[in-house]
Design a protein that fits this description.
- By secondary structure, the chain is of the alpha/beta class.
- It folds into 2 domains: 45 residues, no CATH class; 365 residues, no CATH class.
- It has 15 helices and 15 strands.
- The strands form 4 sheets. The chain has an 8-stranded mixed β-sheet. A 3-stranded antiparallel β-sheet has the order 3-4-5.
- Helix 5 packs across helix 8 and helix 5 runs parallel beside helix 15.
- The N and C termini lie far apart (78 Å).
- About 13% of the residues have low confidence.
């Protein structure tokens, strides 16, 4: 056997050894991770066997998903992937595209009220969303912008699923969808109809960072929508629908986007995560409390707690090296009067810290209200006037809840993605007179979150 054939056999044997070794390693259960620190989520669980799932092929598909998602040393491999992108010069400027049509914001809409519009344009069910309560290591968030489309703006441009990175900052792009936005508006108005005589409904649509951090020209170049114009449209629609729907006490819309823009440079949004910061929630809460004429402490009355290093969802989606090297900081404001709240989880009520100082996962945003839960209740024993408020929210509300506990005797909150209660019955039972829909802009044009909201009033 000549030396050339010997080298070929050595390469074949080495390749086979690596392949077999990798397969064996993949099935070593003790080495398989259950959570992802870098992605801030719980990994896929091994599926439970049923004959129905086996015969349909779903069981074997779930095993494949589990195998890939929990492969040993996946965190190291993810980090290596991000590092390689940096070596190739990709990441200085990343563009996001959107596969599909983005609607034009129609300022001339006649806004004709129809309590049950046709849902023929309803998008398909999301395959990556879950209506189960997320673990504290697996926050569920609406996703917008799908697929990859090339945007030819320079040699380092790259399309990454609805995200744009420049320097040390990432923005999730907003894509306006008229049918979904209109359905959101109708949910808020229908809630006001149901709560007539019980409570006043307020609506606050929170702009995301792309509304301020990217110029209109840049948004147009990226094929994204003007988020501030979309919020104005939402409030105009709600104001138009209320009298047509027979609402005795119209929804009070809160244009917080006008005020937040003035404070954009005050670190009110994270650079590596899609949420606002504690400071952003503080500004918005004061806007709301002024509107309802409730007192609140000054900012210097709070002590603060800080997580020094935080890489959020925008980094997890993009694995961008610039973001990795410039992490965020999470600053939480500690209420001078309330340190605990009650959450409903695993079919029982449980006490949790209002600000959790011991978050084990990389997703430090979960410190606010101890993360995503179906139901929250905070009681301020220093206030005895019977005041109460209900916040209907997604995860943006987590940072908002702690900002209200010094102003109300009772603060209630439900995450509409997971809560299945009767809204009017709950409001009547608790004697709540103020209901706030608090949603970030992305949630108003996302099929999954809009469908969840509609269940509140159906």
């Amino acid at each position: 056997m000549n030396s050339k054939k010997i080298c070929q056999w050595i390469r074949i044997l080495l390749f086979t050894a690596v392949l077999v070794g990798g397969c064996v390693l993949g099935f070593v259960m003790s080495l398989r991770p259950t959570t992802s620190e870098s992605e801030g989520r719980e990994l896929t669980k091994f599926p439970e066997f049923t004959w129905e799932a086996f015969l349909s092929g779903e069981y074997t598909s779930q095993i494949s998903l589990w195998y890939a998602d929990t492969f040993p040393f996946r965190e190291v491999l993810l980090d290596m992937s991000g590092d390689l992108k940096g070596f190739y010069g990709v990441g200085d400027q990343e563009f996001s595209g959107y596969e599909g049509e983005v609607d034009t914001i129609d300022t001339g809409n006649d806004f004709i009220w129809d309590p049950d519009p046709s849902d023929d344009t309803d998008p398909p069910e999301d395959t990556d969303s879950s209506e189960t309560i997320p673990d504290e290591t697996k926050p569920e968030e609406p996703e917008t912008g799908e697929g990859e489309t090339e945007v030819e703006t320079g040699p380092t441009a790259e399309a990454i699923d609805g995200y744009y990175v420049e320097g040390d900052t990432c923005w999730q792009l907003y894509y306006y969808k008229e049918d979904l936005v209109d359905r959101y508006c109708r949910v808020v108005v229908k809630a006001a109809v149901e709560l007539n005589g019980l409570a006043t409904v307020y609506d606050m649509v929170v702009p995301t960072s792309c509304c301020y951090g990217l110029t209109p020209e840049k948004l147009t170049e990226l094929g994204a929508s003007d988020g501030l114009a979309a919020i104005d449209y939402i409030y105009t629609a709600i104001d138009a629908y209320c009298p047509q729907a027979g609402v005795e006490k119209p929804v009070v819309t809160l244009p917080v986007h006008e005020m937040l823009g003035e404070h954009y440079d005050d670190y009110i949004y994270f650079r590596t995560d899609h949420h606002w910061t504690g400071k952003g929630a503080w500004y918005a809460s004061r806007y709301f409390l002024d509107a309802v004429e409730r007192p609140y402490p000054s900012l210097d009355a709070y002590e603060t707690f800080t997580y020094e290093r935080f890489l959020g969802s925008l980094y997890r989606h993009t694995q961008n090296e610039n973001l990795k090297n410039n992490p965020d900081q999470v600053v939480a404001y500690l209420s001078p009067t309330v340190s605990e709240l009650t959450i409903f989880r695993d079919n029982i009520y449980q006490p949790r810290p209002l600000i959790n100082k011991e978050i084990a996962t990389a997703n430090k945003y979960l410190c606010f209200s101890s993360g995503d839960h179906e139901y929250y209740e905070a009681h301020n024993e220093t206030i005895t006037d019977g005041s109460s408020v209900l916040i209907i929210k997604e995860s943006y509300g987590n940072a908002f809840i702690p900002m209200l506990v010094d102003s109300y005797e009772y603060v209630y909150a439900v995450d509409y993605r997971f809560w299945g209660g009767d809204l009017a019955a709950f409001v009547e039972e608790k004697g709540i007179d103020t209901v706030l829909f608090l949603n970030n802009l992305m949630a108003t044009a996302d099929g999954y979150t809009v469908r969840c909201l509609e269940k509140l009033v159906d």
